[in-house]
Amino acid sequence: MVIGVPKEIKNNENRVALTPAGVTELRKHGHTVYVQVNAGEGSGFEDEEYIAAGAIMLPTIEAVYNIAEMIMKVKEPIASEYDLIKQDQLLFTYFHFASSEELTQAMLAKGAVCLAYETVERPDRSLPLLVPMSEVAGRMAVQEGAKYLEKPLKGRGILLGGVPGVKPANVLILGGGIVGTQAAKMAAGLGAHVTIMDVSLARLRYLSDIMPPNVQTMMSNEYNIREMIKVCDLIVGAVLIPGAKAPHLITREMLKLMRAGTVLVDVAVDQGGCIETCSPTTHENPTFIIDGVVHYCVANMPGAVPYTSTLALTNATLPYALQLANKGWQQACRDNSDLKLGLNVVDGKIVYKGVADAFNLPLTDVSTVLTEEEMA
Known about the structure:
By secondary structure, the chain is an alpha/beta fold.
């Protein structure tokens, strides 16, 4: 298969979808890999390393899209890339379709095969290609939240862990999954007083067993959320419904219950956000303030630590990329139910329920696109 790796062009996105080590593995299986010049620079990988691994370097993003059968990316295509995508071209990347009808309609119109990292799902319901970035984002949420609690950045002027004789900050984490667990570990390690909320009592029991004494658990419901946001300094939104829009657990009118300088970090913003007033921001302009409350809503948080993030992501994606390249996307998805669930849009049809539901669009049974003859 001919594989293309374009340079990411989303604002301050420094990750790359394939490392030189990944190129080596794909080449060992007989595949041709084209990499855009400087694609790995932001993550610390020079063109010479890709060349030594057997990649062919191309000067422009247009050239990469034009030649590749499978495009490997990190973030979803942005508007300037839409016209570069070809009919039947396989795109293997994060899409988060449910948060963008524009992107969804564009991919439907192009007739591309869109296999989304975030909905590749194992039988145990774990999300192997989302986990590594969730781990990074969960840890970063506390790191960034602690920074924006500083007074010069319009926060409450609170040191997250306090000092002897002064109480630490109160941190509320909405969601006890991968993001929430990692955020809790970081906040607890810095000495904060942490509360994790989740709707699963079984998950709360587990977290209660593994977390240090400065982490407590609480059932997630509107009453408890309203009470907790009155006294918390940092609130992390860590709710994920795979492939679907996140629910709003904190509404616009709830902001008036918070103290001025409270910091909100919505890690779910790329799936629509679990805080109603959050909208995607960039590393260039990461925050905005509503009713005195600081909102940090960067949609690609791991892009700020690209070396760590790229290695963590490609460790997870490469085995699946090899299956897609070795077998073709249809056979790979027939053979591997994880990959089958990653299919979101195929040949102008939505084949993932969460995306169809988000925009009230028709849903096509994914099995039908896997029984058709191989596309050219």
